[in-house]
Automatic annotation (TrEMBL):
This is NfeD-like C-terminal domain-containing protein. InterPro entries: NA-bd_OB-fold, NfeD-like_C. Residues 19-80 form the NfeD-like C-terminal domain. Signal peptide: none annotated. Gene3D superfamilies: Nucleic acid-binding proteins. The lineage of its organism: unclassified sequences, metagenomes, ecological metagenomes.
Length: 83
């Protein structure tokens, strides 16, 4: 009887996953991002992620800055960072 009552009030706090934490971060392209060839990686917050451009025809060269828009599976979807 008390268990359902207590269970309603005690809920684990939601914590963001590692993937959720990088959305909105700026990142540096390590390997050229080219959706047609299926290549690309970025470094963000000290970790390396496989990346793809949100724009299919964009090629983002190594060394450029990008913004992480979202995560799809295990890939970071990025767009060119503009000041």
């Amino acid at each position: 009887m008390t268990r359902p009552f207590i269970k309603r009030f005690i809920r684990p706090k939601e914590s963001k996953t590692n993937a959720d934490r990088i959305v909105g971060f700026r990142a540096v392209v390590l390997e050229e991002i080219d959706n047609l060839h299926g290549t690309g990686s970025i470094e963000v917050d000290g970790k390396i992620w496989t990346a793809r451009s949100v724009m299919d025809n964009d090629i983002l060269p190594a060394g450029s800055e990008v913004l992480v828009e979202r995560i799809e599976g295990v890939k970071a979807m990025v767009r060119k960072y503009k000041l």
